[in-house]
Design brief:
Blueprint (H helix, E strand, L loop, with lengths): L2 E12 L2 E12 L3 E5 L6 H9 L6 E6 L10 E4 L13 H6 L14 H13 L15 H13 L5 E5 L7 H16 L3 E5 L12 E6 L1 E6 L1 H4 L2 H8 L3 E6 L2 E6 H8 L1
Parallel strand pairs: 3-7, 3-8, 5-6, 6-7
Antiparallel strand pairs: 1-2, 1-4, 8-9, 10-11
Length: about 260
């Protein structure tokens, strides 16, 4: 299987600040990988690195094929921002912006680019919303627009920054299914998440990150009290529920019992 991403001894330095150090990470084509860690752990920096927005200060980062060396083959879904839904754009117009970085005809777009936007809308099940304004959408519908925008360039790799943040439980389950479908279609998906139970425990592979990789494996391999303490700096208990690990914040539990 072709390796999509390989980082070896990667460090990122901004002056005296080192958000990432000694990163060794290998992601194969078609994998679905979740990155978990506390605020300030370097998750966003890692995504920026994979997007090509920043380069390693030291170490090696390689992408597995000629296509994936270009930014045009990387799709990005940012965190859900309510302010974006006030932009005076239709759903189709917002999705077309995913082609803006490589289009030679912005803001008019080519027939092929418009067709790609329509395919993305269809793939995400929101073709019927194409002419609606962003302000008319629910949180889940807007999240699908962000996904469709990321898929317009038909990427090999999709990066998701907290895709389930700010949405309700039903929509969260829907997004998790959608992410799984993208991976099943052959896309390589790397996503950050703060949700250890609803999201991370359902992923096939989790990387615990706090400046460096603290653990890497299946939820049962990674969601352990010792690993979580090293990653989050807090004592957490882990129980089994229907074959899945469930993380319990001991400090929050004790505080709630007082």
């Amino acid at each position: 299987m072709t390796t999509t991403i390989e980082l070896s001894g990667v460090e990122v330095r901004f002056g005296n600040v080192i958000p990432l150090s000694g990163i060794d990470l290998r992601v194969e084509a078609g994998e679905l990988v979740g990155i978990v860690g506390p605020s300030g752990a370097g998750k966003t920096t890692l995504l920026r690195l994979l997007l090509g927005e920043i380069t390693p200060s030291s170490g090696q980062m390689t992408m597995g094929s000629a296509r994936t060396r270009g930014r045009r083959s990387v799709g990005y879904v940012p965190q859900l921002e309510a302010s974006e839904r006030t932009f005076p754009l239709t759903v189709r117009g917002a999705v077309l912006l995913g082609a803006a970085a490589t289009s030679a005809r912005v803001p008019w777009f080519s027939r092929a680019e418009k067709a790609a936007a329509d395919r993305a809308l269809e793939r995400l099940g929101i073709a019927d919303l194409a002419t609606r304004g962003l302000h008319e959408l629910s949180g889940g519908q807007f999240q699908r627009v962000l996904f469709a925008r990321a898929l317009v360039s038909e990427p090999d790799l999709v990066l998701l920054d907290e895709p389930t943040s700010g949405i309700d439980l039903a929509t969260r389950a829907e997004m998790l299914t959608l992410v799984g479908d993208l991976a099943a279609d052959g896309l390589t998906v790397v996503m950050t998440t703060h949700d250890l139970n609803w999201v991370a425990s359902h992923l096939p592979r989790i990387v615990c990150l706090n400046q460096t990789v603290r653990a890497d494996g299946t939820p049962h391999d990674v969601l352990r009290p010792d690993v979580l303490a090293a990653t989050f700096g807090a004592d957490m208990a882990v129980i089994d529920h229907d074959g899945r690990p469930v993380v319990v914040d001991i400090a929050a539990l004790v505080a709630g019992a007082r």
